[in-house]
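Researcher: Let's do a round of design. I'm pasting the structure tokens now; please hold your answer until I've finished.
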């Protein structure tokens, strides 16, 4: 098969022929029809992710496709079924998995991190029984690819962890793929949304998909949010992992507000200073959010089927595998808003 592969962190990514994967017991092989280019893949390519232990490596983790082969013991699925998979595939056996919380599995599998990913014609899905998600007919595959990571991650952050309710103010710090997904989801719930970013084009896209208030991150964002929302956000989501943004997110909350951390913090020991006096004095909640289990995809898929949520609106560029591999290496300085998706010919 053709795959985009790199042999050293930060080195060239080349498209070349490699061996097709074969399914082991409990696994399936999926033909990749669309896969998103995510900043997490860029961090992995740079060497920031400890799960990537062996080189050469194939990046990519959010995708949509169709089952190409079934491993021993996989039942209830057929070759040709259209599927996606949460970017965290739970093992199904550990304590969190038995409790239904596969997104925090102790032995999780992640295509593009724990093993070769989706910048390829085919990808291996481990623990298939508990992680495959059937895609309804008519769902745009490029948009569906975003359900594996960005949209479901944002949905869990806003709905399950942030517990946002209609009429509440939700602030979103960082309008990349996850942040824009959070904007769209919060707006679809009937929340008021304030979007924060350094880039004007990203803010304009946030406005198009539901943000009512646009704030430049280089300003005093916390004060601006408090002024615009009449006292602060009820829920604030940091979708970028920047230390200043995290502190600003916490300071932008009204009493008893909820800060949800989605963006990964990298570098400098991954240490973040939290204004703990404010957390205590206002009884704020600090919550983490890490993907969504396959069992919880139903409500967000229904929103897509009903037309209330359209992930494809965030797809601003579509490309082939070779161009996508080149674009991944440029993510450190590419300011194009929205999401780029690699599509199969």
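Researcher: That's everything. Go ahead.
Model: Designed sequence:
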């Amino acid at each position: 098969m053709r795959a985009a592969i790199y042999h050293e962190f930060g080195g060239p990514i080349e498209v070349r022929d490699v061996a097709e994967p074969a399914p082991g017991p409990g696994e399936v092989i999926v033909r990749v029809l669309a896969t998103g280019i995510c900043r997490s893949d860029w961090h992995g390519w740079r060497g920031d992710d400890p799960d990537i232990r062996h080189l050469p490596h194939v990046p990519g983790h959010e995708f949509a496709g169709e089952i190409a082969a079934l491993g021993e013991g996989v039942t209830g699925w057929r070759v040709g079924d259209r599927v996606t998979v949460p970017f965290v595939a739970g093992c199904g056996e550990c304590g969190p998995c038995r409790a239904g919380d596969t997104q925090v599995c102790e032995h999780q599998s992640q295509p593009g991190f724990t093993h070769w990913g989706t910048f390829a014609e085919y990808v291996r899905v481990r623990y298939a029984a508990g992680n495959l998600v059937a895609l309804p007919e008519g769902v745009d595959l490029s948009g569906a690819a975003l359900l594996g990571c960005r949209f479901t991650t944002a949905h869990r952050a806003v709905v399950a962890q942030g517990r946002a309710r209609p009429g509440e103010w939700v602030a979103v710090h960082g309008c990349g793929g996850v942040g824009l997904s959070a904007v769209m989801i919060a707006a679809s719930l009937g929340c008021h949304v304030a979007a924060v970013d350094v880039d004007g084009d990203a803010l304009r896209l946030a406005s198009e998909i539901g943000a009512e208030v646009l704030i430049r991150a280089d300003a005093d964002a916390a004060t601006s949010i408090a002024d615009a929302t009449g006292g602060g956000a009820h829920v604030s989501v940091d979708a970028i992992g920047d230390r200043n943004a995290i502190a600003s997110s916490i300071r932008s909350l009204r009493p008893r507000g909820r800060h949800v951390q989605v963006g990964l913090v990298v570098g400098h020991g991954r240490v973040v200073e939290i204004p703990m006096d404010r957390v205590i004095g206002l009884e704020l909640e600090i919550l983490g959010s890490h993907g969504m289990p396959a069992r919880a995809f139903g409500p967000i898929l229904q929103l897509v089927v009903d037309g209330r949520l359209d992930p494809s609106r965030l797809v601003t560029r579509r490309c082939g595998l070779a161009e996508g591999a080149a674009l991944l290496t440029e993510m450190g300085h590419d300011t194009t808003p929205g999401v780029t998706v690699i599509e199969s010919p």
